[in-house]
Amino acid sequence: MTAEADAAGAGRFTLDTRLSGALGGRTAQAVERAFGYRTVGELLAHYPRRYALRGELTALASLPLDENVTIVAEVLEVRVREMRQRRGSILEAKISDGTGILTLTFFNQKWREQDLRPGRRGIFAGKVGDYRGARQLAHPDYELFDDAAPPAAGDAAAKRWAEAPIPIYPATGTLASWQLAKSIALLLDGLDEIDDPVPSEVRDSRSLLTQRRALEAIHRPDAEADWKAARRTLRFTEAFVLQTALLMRRAELRTHSTTARHPSAGGLLERFDDALPFSLTDDQLAVGREIADDMGEPVPMNRLVQGEVGSGKTIVALRAMLAVADSGGQSALLAPTEVLAAQHLRSIARMLGPDLATALMPTLITGQLPAAERRKALLRAAAGQSRIVVGTHALLGETVGFADLGLVVVDEQHRFGVEQREALRLKGRNPPHVLVLTATPIPRTVAMTVFGDLDVSTIRELPAGRAGIESFVVPLAERPGWRGRVWERLAEEVELGRQGFVVCPAIEPRLAEDAAPPEGEGDADDAGPGASVASVLAELTGHPRFAGKRVAPLHGRMSAEEKDRVMRAFAAGELDVLVATTVIEVGVDVPNASAMVVVDADRFGVSQLHQLRGRVGRGAVPGLCLLVTAAEPESLARQRVEAVAGTLDGFELARVDLELRREGDVLGATQSGGRSSLKLLRVARDGEVIADARERAAQVLADDPRLERHVSLAAEVRRRVDREASEFLSKG
Ligand code: ADP
Ligand code: MG
Questions:
Q1: Interatomic CA distance for residues 213 and 216, integer angstroms
Q2: What are the backbone angles phi and psi of residue 138, rounded to the nearest 5°?
Q3: Which residue of 502, 575, 626, 707 pairs with 714 in a disulfide if CB–CB is 3.0 to 4.6 A?
Q4: Matching CATH number, 268-459, of 3.40.50.300, 3.20.20.70, 3.30.1540.10, 3.40.50.720
């Protein structure tokens, strides 16, 4: 314990102490503005991004322009000159780390000459600018290493001082790394005893540090081994607290009671199964049994069914709806778009056949329905006549009531957040069973982390008789001429009596945002004047091979009726090629479609490309997927496209996607439904830690379900839940 800490009176703060109390109002405000932290515990969980060594030289040679950087370097020379154009002086200091030279500039701050003497070393932080072709930092923050600090050379303490890693924190323009380090040091000095959220037997069996020791070592390590051990401890702790929270939430959901739903002997489900023109795959049967078991309990089901595009999830969901109908209840099916809702209704009606359709009266309710039709549909839902109601989020509207809502099926969970699921849950008199379908395969650890409160079923096997898909990258960077060949190939497919899609990232040139891929899926921001529905349409219309072929656009700016009309015409074979945006991404099912051309494929995310490809090769006709890209051969964008072409295995792609994405994106708001992101844990890398933590959390909860004997763990879980709640509220 240092002398300052004693003087300040150690033992004043807990993790819940307000920063304003611990650091003073001004610093606390700066920290809150920069990072949103309000408590001691939150700032202590602001871990260093990396560590620098006093002797270490960072690569000045490759400083990224316009980024906030923190570097360790030595002052080479300092010059002060008077400005020519106006009054005042410029101080220029050149610093070097041995790999490059950087200029620091200060206006009217001559006095810094005393500070920045040649030979002194320190940490410098600022935004990298460019002045006449040279990299510079204007008015950087800096802290020079204390010349006086190193004890006499040869001393063991001198060696330690030289070797102690310097924490480098994620910083902002207004709050530099060492300013954070100072505040954090204050907190550590003043921190009261804290109890470990991880029970001691778990800690000991994994050789983890205590929480207190880990916080100390991650922020003020004496050596590399210290922060490494601390990270290991804090990473496990993070996983452990998260899993405990998720398992408790799951248990909490299971305390609600609802109506158990059983199919009846000789009932609707049996009639449906008997009439099926094919046999269900083993996976479909197994998942069907899991769902039946869940719904047979008087506890709401919360199940996620993941399965490749075309693996037959819709039938699995439909069978669950039939079981609910057998028990007298209704089901609601939510689709992400009106096109898909309309298509679901059609395919459900087709699968049911005329007799069952009459009995179940599947009904569409969307925002775009004409008033009279809408009124009729609403009545059918409210009176319980319609046993299957299909719609978009409009189904969540207050005007939609159900007589006895037993099951909610959410198709493509990506587009529906937790809150929407929650809103729908409140629609039934008893909470309905909830089934979420997703075609984006989710690696096990992500499922455990993001959907830890849901049970997960997986359909891996595709129904037999699929002709398969061949995928190719068309690399315009190396082979610009291949673009023409793409249209030839598409024309050939059409001439074989098949159909095709051309997907573009935008509706019109320069209006990329209209078809912006969902968050975290790609970068629409930097979409320049790339290909668009309009430009490709013009290109094809003028192309000799497409003379007499029926080509039509489909995109989000068309009205619901127009879109529906085009989709129907395409499904009926009255159109040859659709030039579309990603409105066709999910669920469009036209077995005769064989060609999928994605232009500017690098503008789309891995899972989106995989989804798009899933639109072809769905029947007996083999699919062809051409991913056209101008991205440079080694670029990340190109790697994503190559990965998609390289495998049809959605699980493998999900893994690759995780690796290629920037950290943090994995739990982006669209996937996590607003859950707060992770600190040290990376789902792609830390699968084992997560699985281990989950098992341990389950053991603790089995003994002590309400954590009455694990008070500090309970407190940590509560902090986490509170943080989520406040993030949720602040998002409005
Ligand atoms: P998903 O929703 O998982 O993408 P769908 O449920 O739309 O897949 O099924 C894709 C197509 O495969 C549909 O035309 C469906 O009728 C058909 N299908 C589903 N299950 C089977 C099966 N076991 N055998 C043959 N065809 C099937
Ligand atoms: Mg589907």
A1: 5
A2: -95, 130
A3: 707
A4: 3.40.50.300
pLDDT score recorded for residue 515? 40
Convert the pLDDT of each residue in 362-382 to its tens digit: 999 988 888 999 999 999 999
User: What is the rounded average pLDDT for all residues in the chain?
Assistant: 83
3-state secondary structure 522-578: CCCCCCCCCCCHHHHHHHHHCCHHHCCCCEEEECCCCCHHHHHHHHHHHHCCCCCEE
Q: Give the pLDDT of residue 135.
A: 83
* Contact call for residues 534 and 541 (beta carbons, < 8 A): no
Residue to substitute in 279, 308, 311, 314 for testing ligand 1 pocket (most ligand atoms within 8 angstroms of CB): 314
Provide the b/e sequence for 79-112 (b: ≥16 CB within 10 Å).
Answer: eeeeeeeeeeeebbbbbebeebbbbbbbeeeeee
Q: How far is the CA of 235 from the centre of ligand 2 (A)?
A: 37
Choose the CATH number for 54-164 among 1.10.3720.10, 3.40.47.10, 2.40.50.140, 1.10.10.60. Answer: 2.40.50.140
Amino acid at 708: E
Distance (Å) from CA 663 to ligand 2 centroid: 30
In this prediction, residue 449 carries a pLDDT of 66
Amino acid in position 259: T
Among the bound ligands, name the one nearest to the CA of residue 341: 2
**pTM score:** 0.62
Q: Which residue has the tokens 């029970």?
A: 199
Residue 400: burial class (beta carbons within 10 Å; 0-12, 13-18, 19+): buried
User: What's the mean pLDDT in 529-534?
Assistant: 82
Express each pLDDT in 546-563 by its tens digit. Answer: 999 999 999 989 988 898
Rounded to 5 degrees, what angle do the CA atoms 256, 285, 655 make?
Answer: 80
Whether the predicted pLDDT of 732 surpasses 80: no
> Ligand nearest 614 Cα, by number?
1
CA nearest neighbour of 509 among 533, 526, 487: 533
Question: Which of 467, 428, 427, 435 lies closest to 451, judged by CA?
Answer: 435
Ligand 1 binding pocket includes 235 (Cβ within 6 Å): no
| Closest C-alpha among 441, 432, 415 to residue 341 | 415
Instruction: Give the orientation angle of helix 606-613 with respect to helix 650-660, to 10 degrees.
Output: 160
Distance 578 CA to ligand 2 centre (A): 20
State phi, psi for 18 to the nearest 5 degrees: -65, 140
What confidence score (pLDDT) does residue 163 get?
Answer: 67
Say whether pLDDT at 729 is over 60.
no
The boundaries of every CATH 3.40.50.300 domain in the chain are: 268-459, 469-647
